[in-house]
Amino acid sequence: MESGQVTDVFGFVGAFLTTLSFVPQAWLVLRTGRTEGISLAMYALFTIGVAAWLVYGVLEDAMPIILANAITLTLAALILTLKARAVLQARSRAQGAADETSAPIAS
User: Fold this and answer.
1) pLDDT tens for residues 79-101?
2) What is the domain partition of the chain in residue ranges?
3) Quick one: 72 exposed, middle or buried, by C-beta within 10 A (0-12, 13-18, 19+)?
4) pTM, full prediction
5) Buried-most residue among 13, 32, 75, 90 (CB within 10 A)?
């Protein structure tokens, strides 16, 4: 086996394992829709970072990096969308509750 092939084997194994390690968390969030324990800022940064790795993989024509990050980006973007929706809904509910409990100022 040539050194380029060995490099690709390690790349594919690493890509497979790191992507696989992300799947249980993604599956839990997608199945339950619960995102309370997830930081919106962390997921936003993570998703941007994965997108950057995907671009890097495309520019370098590195198939292990492309495949792993395409899959991870898809899952991360779904989770980020769910988290952003949950945050926006919570803010909307909080604002609605504040509006209902606010007494008018007497003049």
Assistant:
1) 999 999 999 998 888 887 766 66
2) 3-87
3) buried
4) 0.78
5) 75
